[in-house]
Predict the 3D structure of the following.
Amino acid sequence: MSFRMLGPLAAVLLASCASLPPERGNDRLRQLAAERSGVELALDAQQRDAAEADARARLAKPLRVDDAVAVALARSPDVARALARLGLAWADLVEASRISNPTLSLSALDSDRSGEDTQVGVSFSLGLSDLLVLGSRARIARGEFDGAQEEAVRELQSLVAETRKEYFALVGAEQVARMRDVVATAANAATALAERYRIAGNIPAIELNLHQAEGASAAIEAERARADALSARASFAMRLGLADGEAFAVAESLPLPAGELEDADALVALALDSRPDLAAARRRAEVLADSLGVTRRFRWLGDFEVGVETERETDGARLTGPAVSLQLPLFHQNQAAVARAEARVDLAEADALALERSIAQRVRAAHAAVAADRRIVERHRTELMPYREAVVARTQEQVNFMLAGPFDLIRAKRDEFDAYQGYLEAVRDYWTQRAELGLAVGRVLASDAHAESSDEVRATVLPDAAAPMDHGSMRHMQHGAQAEPDSHEHHEHEEPQP
Amino acid sequence: MKMSRRNVFQWLAALGAGAAVSRVARADEAPSAAATGDGSYVPVRTLNGWTLPHRVVDGVKEFHLVAEEIEHEFAPGSVATCWGYNGTTPGPTIECVEGDRVRIYVTNRLREHTNVHWHGILLPAGMDGVGGVSQRNIAPGETYVYEFTLRQHGTHMYHPHADEMVQMANGMMGLFVIHPKDGEPERIDRDYALLLHNWALHPGTSRPDPSVMSEFDLWTFNSKVFPAIDSMVAATGERVRVRVGNLSMWNHPIHMHGVQFQVTGGDGGRWQRSAWRTEVTEIVGVGQTRDLEFVAVPGDWAFHCHMSHHTMNAMGHGVPNNVGVDQTGVEAEIRRMLPGYMAMGEAGMAEHQDHTDSGHMKGPENTLPMMMGKGPFGNIEMGGMFTLIKVRDGLAKGDYRDPGWYAHPPGTIASRVSTNPDFGNPVRRNPARSR
């Protein structure tokens, strides 16, 4: 085969190369990421610099959840990993879109006859089967790459969802930890008070011991909550891809949910339409079906090579001629390859179906969980918290009339704190579950735009650090009204309200 | 003595006690408390209460009691849904003269059956009013009639003997006073009557709890607590009788300041003079009545149950004892999370009324502070079974108006001589113990 024969072939190959976009599919990736995850992907150096600058600016202030997502996208190694994997898929695509390079073989054989030259052989061969299947192979590779892109988007979605979850877990954990500190302070106050009763001779040792034990338990709870918050902080920093020791803060309070959630049926439909991994699985099944076709078409074709072989004989003669080598389909006709390809198609189709089914179930389950968490949050907000606050207020009234003691009041307050912790956890679970739902649907939900109330979970139960500590003990006030007949008008007392 | 409708109003206006007026005003139809026969008498004055009017039909005194649910005020700030008769608890006093034939209609407007037992009165067994034993109970909506002749005198009571625990806990009770037909051995100028009771009106509630046997919240004279209990007013030198009946679940040592009284009667009627006893405290047992008589001495005199918890309004039991507990510093810590918290009672509870009276320490709804009342010298720090006997020179007969606070003649009032605790040289044992 002469080199001239290769001309048209090269033209075909070049044409197939030229059909690959020069931006390596990044435009589609960015579009998918924006559309499905609502995120801006930084792919080139300029975009990456801008994203980094943006991340720095966001890190300078307490992070809101959107800040956290932006920082994670700019910083997380998961993004780099996903993009690198996509690079591999791109390489596969490029490779599949080009014919294999021809093979040049050289050989030198020494003659055992003395005086004879070494026999030199040169051969140039090109796998012709490549040439025949190139079109199919490129199409298949394109499909594979599209799937890989979908998977990369899925990985980004996963990163966004995990970032959101860990963000809310952290805000919640820090809020709980602060509250547990207050509870420990309350228990400590009760213990201190019990000590005073004990000093006065008014309670037996066992009662003091009970208060001391409760105080110690509360301190332990506070330690645990602090450790949990630190652990949540570490996970979150890791998720964001922050450098060791890099400072950051998150918002002080969880936002309250707002707005209405989409209908479950609509979300299932949206998910089946949007989930990148489902698209990838379907694409893979298509690609494999394509491969099956190609395998069937060329099943008779074993390894078929054409080439040019030049040999210089030991006597110096030069022999040049075309060479063809092909496997003879005598013993098998690639039945194994066909069977394998068929099985792969079946497997891919089964995988896609299984994924489709599980997506529907997961979306429904996540939707139900979000709705349930929302109701739990509302019950906390509109019922449990007001009732617990009312119990404290009513107990205070009882204490005012000496119908209950200070320990009853502190107990009521601690119950209110516990309810508040449940409230915080419910709000945290709501946001976590909502991130889960977003991941299950595989697309930014329209309702996300109005999901956060401008109100936060603010604790009326927590003492305001800025509030004055004391209004003066009533013990020190003068109540000498008994002394004179004309001086029994009411004394003006300071109001105990803050 | 005959009281016209106008008289009654003057009488009521004179009373000046709003709560009492509103109750008694129901009796304005014909409060004919006039004596009949030859036994003229000074009508009983049921503190904060009233006497049931009657009419005479064929020589029989006819009364009509209606058992019903009512709204009752123990004192301003505490109102409850109770059960009573003819709109009140205690029900109106039935007042007769020995020898009277009485016919008493009882209409049941409750939602369960009831009956009336005429406690201590001698009558045919079938008139005794014990459900199941001596009569069928009076079903809701029904009216029964009791009729008997009064063969005795004295201070008596009436109450249900059907679902007795619930009905009495809810306030169904009344006094039944029978004057002797032959008059009194000693002329009586003022004849007060009151019925002792206890109520499990738990703080923050508005209906008595019949299940309570000992931890009661309110202790009442005629279903009122101090300071809503009328004072007993008398002119110096008048002979005053206080009839006390007890339908509560405790015995009450009734103590009178200022005089030694004589116990002159009880459930067994007016006692022979030889049986009269001189006392300053008389226990009136559960289900008993006692007549206490004394000659009025000028002044404002306390009259109360001597169980000190019975002269308190609703109290907490089992709350930590604050006396001697120094909360300095700790109080501030607690106030950080409970801004309304206030340390109280380190020195004792004397300060408590100042806190509650001033309104900055709000209590549970519908609940009275345990210590109440203001006198000319400051807080009276009482509640429950406490009132005053106010005796003044020259009050007109039948003038029951509150005469205000007593003006003590010079030199007859305790006065301050020092504000220094080291004053004088008193003998003290272990003086280091107190400051």
Q: What stands out?
A: The mean pLDDT of chain B is 90.
